[in-house]
Amino acid sequence: MKKVFASIVFLLFAASLTYGQIQIQSGTFFYSKDNQNYTLHANQGKRIVEYEISFPKPFDKKPKVVLIPSLIDAEKTSQIRYNLKASGVSRDGFVLLAEVWGDTQFNAIGGFWLAHTEE
Length: 119
Fold this sequence. Notes:
Layout: H1 2-19, E1 24-32, E2 47-54, E3 64-74, E4 82-87, E5 93-100, E6 106-116
Antiparallel strand pairs: 1-6, 2-5, 3-6, 4-5
């Protein structure tokens, strides 16, 4: 009887691990004035660039995305005003939006992204 009970507990434990499993994927991004359609280094006012990021493996459900900047190459004569946003998030990927405004001029911006599903 103890073996049967232990087997049932083990099967329930194993099933709960696969059911409540959190999925996590991550990657990096780097965009500069050498990239096509990059406009954050020129002019003034609001400027936005969009880049598609594809997940290495599709998620089972739509994840949440966190963006972490780690590199900003800004002109020293301008204010640093920027916003990073993940738009159009799906199971397959998302669109990274990098925005500057005013006199801000970025020669390059880079960082990390982390996509995860909730429990």
